[in-house]
Each structure stands twice: as C-alpha cells, then as structure tokens.
Amino acid sequence: MSNREHSIFVCQGTGCISSGAEQVFASLGKEIVRLGLEGKVRVKRTGCHGFCQQGPLVTLEPYGILYTNVQPDDATDICQSLLAQGKPITRLLYRDPTTGNPVPYYRNIPFYQKQERIVLRHCGKIDPENIGDYTATGGYQALRKALLSMKPEEVIDEVKRSGLRGLGGAGFPTGQKWEVCATASGNEKYVVCNGDEGDPGAFQDRAVMEADPHAIIEGMIIAAYAIGARRGFIYVRAEYPLAVNRLKIGITQARKEGFLGRNILGTSFDFDIEVFQGAGAFVCGESTALVRSIEGDRGWPKPLPRPRTAEAGLWGFPTLLNNVKTFANIPIIITYGSQWFASRGTASSKGTAIFSLTGKVVNCGLIEVLMGTTLGEIIFGIGGGIRDGKAFKAVQTGGPSGGCLPASLLDLQIDFDSLTAAGSMMGSGGMVVMDEDTCMVDVARYFLDFTQRESCGQCFPCRVGTKQMLEILDDITKGRGKPEDTELLLELSTAVADTSLCALGQTAPNPVLTTIRYFHDEYEAHINEKRCPAGVCQSLAKGGGC
Amino acid sequence: MDELAEEFLREILSFYQGHKSELIPILLEIQNNFGYLPKEAILLVSNFINVPKGHIYSVASFYTRLRLLPLGRHRVTVCRGTACHIRGAPQILKEIENVLGIKEGETSSDLEYTLDTVACIGCCALAPCLTVDGKVHGAMNTDKVKKIFEASSVKGKHEQ
Questions:
Q1: CATH tag for B3-62 (out of 3.40.50, 3.40.1350, 2.60.40, 1.10.10)
Q2: 8 Å CB contact of A203 and B80
Q3: Mean pLDDT of B26-41
C-alpha cells in the first residue's frame, strides 16, 4: 500500500441510509479492525454524494472509485481492493446504461462529469459531523478573512459585486438585501437561515444541511458580521431530523473552536446560532410566516403593505433571511473573491443552480450546474434521458409555484429570468421529469391539491380560489369536464394570482397556467373526448395519443 | 393524567425559560414524548409561558405535526411529493389503506397504526417512498407494502 492516506467514504445521506448505508458503514468498520488496518485506512461517513438512486454509495480515495448498491457483505471485498492498490471490484461499479460497461471512477460517470460542483464541493467528501474535515479543506478561512481583514461594508460590497441572487426561489439580489438590513435601524438584528424546504419533489437544501453544515454556519457568521447581528436561527422543517442533528453538532463544534459565541476569533464580535424546528406547514417558507412561527404563533403571512423582513422581522427588528444554499455560497465568494464568482453563470444569474433531479429520468439525484445550462443538457446529459426508453413529455421546476415545460423548451438556458419568462420559476430547486405516461391534467390537479391543503386559510382568494380550481380539475380528470372549464380555470388563475396575500397563492396557478399553455390538447382530450391520453385518469378511456 | 406523567411534563418544561418563542419547540417535545398533546399539557404550557390556552390550540391546530388526539403505536407516513406522485404514490396509499383497513389521517381502533401523508420527505430519488416509525422505505411497490406490514420488524417492536 502506498503512503497516501486511504479513505473509504460511506454516504450517510437520508437516501442512502434508507437503502441500508448504516449497516454498510458498521460492517466496513469491523472489517478494518479484523484486517488490522486501523490507522492505515479510515472509514468515514459523509453527507449526500448525490447519486441517491444508486445507493448505498461508497467511494475509495485517493482513487476516486465509486461503488454503487453496496451491501454489508461487500465489506471484505472492498477492503481487499484497497489493499490491492485500488483495483476496482467490477460487480459493484456503476454501469453505463447504453454500453453496459462498468465505469470505475466517478469523475468519468456522465452524472458527475457534467456537473460544476461549487456549493456541493464537500458533499460526499467530508464527514459532516467532524469540524476538522471542514477546516482541513479551507473551512472557516473565509470567516477569518472577513473578520480580520475586511470591514462589514466591504463584505457587503463583495457579496453585491458577486451578483449572487437568493437561491430560495425568488432570486432577490443577496448583497442588496444585506445592505438594507445593515442600514436599517434597530437595537437588535437577526440572521435567519431558511431551511424550511417544503416543495414536494425537492431535497437539495436537506442534502446541503446534512452534508456540509459548517458551510451554512460559516456563511451565517459572515452575514451576521456584515449586518451587525448577534443572534441567528436556522429554521429546519420537522421532516428533516438528520439535518437538525447534524446542524446542532456543527454549532456545538463551532462554539468549541471559537467561531461562535463571544469574541469570535479574538475580536469584539459576538454571535450565536440556534436551530429552530418547524412543525409542518409549507407556508412557513414565506418570510413573514417563518418569522411568526419562531415567535410562537400560527405561520400566517403578513399582508402588504408592510415593511420588508430585512427592515422589521423577528420581534420587529431587522432580520436577514436567506436560503440554505445562499449562505453556503458565501464562504466561497469571500475566499475566491466576487470576480471569480461573477465570471460563472449568465449575465443576470451568477454562479450555479442546484437541483433535485427526479421523476422518470434514468439518473435521479442531487446535481449542481452552472447557471445557463440547458434543460436538455441536465435531463439527457446528467440525467441520462428517460427511463425504460419512454418519450420525454415535460419537466417541472419550482414546485407548486412553478410550471411544466414541454420538449420545445429543452434548449432553454436555465436561470432565474428565463424560467420565469417561460411561465415556471427556479424555485428552491426541484426538477421533476415527466414522460409519456404522465398525465398533465393530473399533474395540475396534484399541485392544486397540494396548495389547497397548504393554504393557510387567511385570505379568501387563496383559500377558496384554489379549492374551486381543484374541484374543476377533479371534474376534468373524472370525465365530468365541461367545454368552458379551461376558460374558467384561466379566469380563476388570474384572480388568485392577482389578489392573494402571499406568494403561496400568487404562484399557485402556475402549474395550471403552464399545463394549459403547453399541453392544451390533453385538456381537450379529457373534456371533449372523455379520454386520458396517458392512461392515468382511471375514470376515462385510455390512450389515443395527443 | 397521572402524577408521573405530570412530573415528566414539568421536567420537560424545566429546560425552557418560558419565552413565547419556545412554544413550538415545547409542543414538539411534548408531542415526541407523549405521541400527542394531552389537554393537561396544554394547560401547563399555557401557565408556563403565560399565553391563553386558546392561543396554544390555535397554534396546535395550524401545524400538521402537532396532534390533539392520541396516535397509533406505529406511524405510517406516505410521501405524496411530486416525484412520488408520478411514480405511483396514490396506488401505494390505496394499498396501505387496504392492508391496514384505515384511511389517510385515521388511527386503527386498536391504536396500533396511524396512517398519514406528508408533503415530501425529500427522498425523491427513491420514489415512491414512505416511512414507518421514522424509517424511510424507498422504491415502493404494492408487493413491498404487503411485506412491510407482514414483516416482524413492525409487529416485533410492538411486542417489546
């Protein structure tokens, strides 16, 4: 064996754990002891490596070998292969779906090859429960740089110049938000990380929280220094217990190292973070609802006109609220500089976009691409195309606030503005691929069912409007559709979008609007011919194509 | 509520300071230990953080994780996320409803199972998926559903 350190990384993301990764981790640990390799080979847990569908995943470093679908019994063979200078075990390798050939190194697998991993650079490579792993890769150097050599205004300027836009969905310029918060008056200021990832079909924030908690914590500390906050919260949804656990471990370790608490890095700057667990309400992803939830109230969004959360948020004080991925970008921007960051992406959207690529695509998982990558490159390049040789029909981005885009838009270069112009939105990063067996009317019905359940009920257009729209869509999918229904849906959509109190209602019609715009023939088949071309709607005749 | 339970509740509260912003964390902790929010607990919390009982009911009825009625010993949660939906979650739910004889949102009369759905558990790459007592089961089909509920793992836990 060479002197270079040998490590076996076992993915312990929620996806791989559900496929049995904890047993694989335990079994590898035992095998190392049995072979007397302690001190020579390290078995490490990591967060999500991204290729969840092929889990449990094991990587061998420094070789860069990826093993897929690993079982506890494979531990002996894996250790033997390490002893044999990293000779790959063919049966555990990923196989190229077109050629059937095994691919030993993950850098050669198209799923990884075509990505640009900036925010996800640590995911699957470090132990998220060990701060030493993070600092060994340059972690907390950005904090040092910001605190010891930059004034708060300089930090804000750097973030502004980077062109970073909020990755929670709306894409508001991050530096501008920081500036508003920094200049707002208030005795106290707060920094809040929004980890209330509620979009169905999205798990990228969960993956970052589970795989690289210190990047988020470091980003938040830098933000607190820039705006002058002393207290921060990470709001995590209740369904993500592993993320909560790893963030708490991260915070405790950061305190011990003097990155959190009093007199951080020997300066006069104090800051600390608490994890706040949500209790199951999609609307709490909205800034004013999230604030109310932390304050101990129902998560009811506040009506306009109202001051922005950056000016008056928690307990009426200026509160900086950014998404998980936005904070995770900050250490990179401070370390490499705004120019480095701004040179990536498109004219209006800098850096990368992170998606949970799922649905009827061959390779499902967590991906990161430069802004400006086309939908086709993602779905067919990284995703490997559609499963079972079926035909692509649509791709859904932006969750319940987004829309379904057809094959004619596969060349669309994704960024905040192009997706919005197409009737969808970037959203938090869900990307669900649909094939010929997916019924677009059923998809619209599905999303309206979701928004109608999750509507907080405070304002009339959202509470009643989404219910009305759902009833019409229900009728159409059950063969009771009337010719005037699509017109009525469009009319209701305008009313709900224009008059709802918060973004939940304002964007709820998007799935309906885009399916009517791009898949009008499917609505006609359902309504006029009482036929579901995809064969999903049970009450209707199947097939016939569109 | 017996004395022991009340003592336990007081112990839970002793880790908090009584700020209103602790309301949701406190309710979640009680929920995690008792399986639901007993009436007596709501009264105690109301006194502890000095807010009316009505406010606590208003909050408890708003958030789906908070429950005012006892739940089954085993909690089955079917994901109805987008990826799960287009890969057959509605059929999975139907199958579980058949196997357990209860509908979504219901608890079996022997208090053995509670069946719920959740917006998304974030295991979209393994769709369709569900959780039983917090453990995620991915790539489900109707045969696998039958196996889970025949399997000793679920029943065994109850016998312990």
A1: 1.10.10
A2: no
A3: 94
Architecture of domain A131-342: 3-Layer(aba) Sandwich (3.40)
Q: Which of residues 63-92 of B touch A (CB under 8 A)?
A: 63-66, 80-87
Smallest CA–CA distance, residue B76 to chain A, in Å, is: 13
Chain A interface includes B154 (CB < 8 A):
no
* CB burial string A384-414: b at 16+ within 10 A, e below: bbbbeeeebbbbbbbbbbbbbbbeebbebeb
Spatial CA neighbour of A151 closest among A259, A228, A263, A264: A228
Residue with tokens 């798990």: A203
Contact B21 A294 (CB under 8 A): yes
User: Which of A206, A278, A399 faces B122 most closely, judged by CB atoms?
Assistant: A206
Interface test mutation site (partner A, options B15, B28, B57, B62, max chain A beta carbons within 10 A): B62
Interface A-B, measured as beta-carbon pairs within 8 A, has a size of: 146
* pLDDT attached to residue A80: 87
B residues 123..152 contacting A (CB < 8 A): 123-127, 129, 134-138
- Burial class of residue A101 (count of CB atoms within 10 Å of its CB; 0-12, 13-18, 19+): exposed
Q: How confident is the model at residue A238 (pLDDT cuts 50, 70, 90)?
A: confident
Backbone angles phi, psi at B105, to 5 degrees: 90, -10
Residue-wise pLDDT for A469-500, tens only, equals: 999 999 999 999 999 999 999 999 999 999 99
Average pLDDT, chain B: 90
Give percent of chain A above pLDDT 70.
99
Class of domain A352-434: alpha beta
- Select the residue of B62, B85, B136 nearest A446 (Cβ to Cβ): B85
pLDDT at residue A258 above 60?
Answer: yes
Fold entry, domain A440-542: de novo design (two linked rop proteins) (1.20.1440)
Contacts of A239 (CB under 8 A, 6+ apart): A280, B118, B120, B121, B122
Just give the CATH number of A6-109. 3.40.30.10
The Cα–Cα gap between A45 and B89 comes to 31
- pLDDT tens digit string along A424-433? 999 888 999 9
| pLDDT (tens digit per residue) in A400-446 | 999 999 999 999 999 999 999 999 999 888 999 999 999 999 999 99
Q: What is the pLDDT confidence band of residue A545, given thresholds at 50, 70 and 90?
A: low
In 10 A of CB A26, how many CB atoms? 14
CATH code: domain B74-159 is 3.40.30.10
Contact residues, chain A, for B138 at CB < 8 Å: 15, 18-19
User: Is A358–B49 a contact, with Cβ atoms under 8 angstroms apart?
Assistant: no
Q: Given a cut of 60, is residue A230 above it in pLDDT?
A: yes
Nearest to B58 among A240, A298, A357 (CB): A298
Sheet of B74-79: strand order equals B113-118, B74-79, B130-132, B135-137
- Domain residue spans of chain B: 3-62, 74-159
Query: Does residue A2 surpass a pLDDT of 50?
Result: no
User: What's chain A's length in residues?
Assistant: 546
